[in-house]
Amino acid sequence: MARQPNRSQSGTNIQQVRQQNAASASGGQFGTEFASETNAQEVRRQNAASASGQGSFGTEFASETDVQEVRQQNQQAEANKAKNSGQFGGQGY
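^ Small, acid-soluble spore protein gamma-type, sequence as received from the core. Prediction below:
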């Protein structure tokens, strides 16, 4: 098959690639497309809230955790571990 003008051997449009590269190098369409969707002030507010511990993520999960229940479960697990470690100690395995 004969090579067409402005096409690579695989059929890529060379001129289009050059235009895309030039646009990319000068901060073209790709960069501005996503930058326009980002509200910088909102991101700063979220970062400040996160750094000060006032964010909704931390409080959401903290309010669902019963600290006393977790302590009790940890104590029970430790007691079971101590009880079970003595069961198999002298059997010669």
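The helical segments are 14-25, 29-35, 40-51, 56-62, 67-87.
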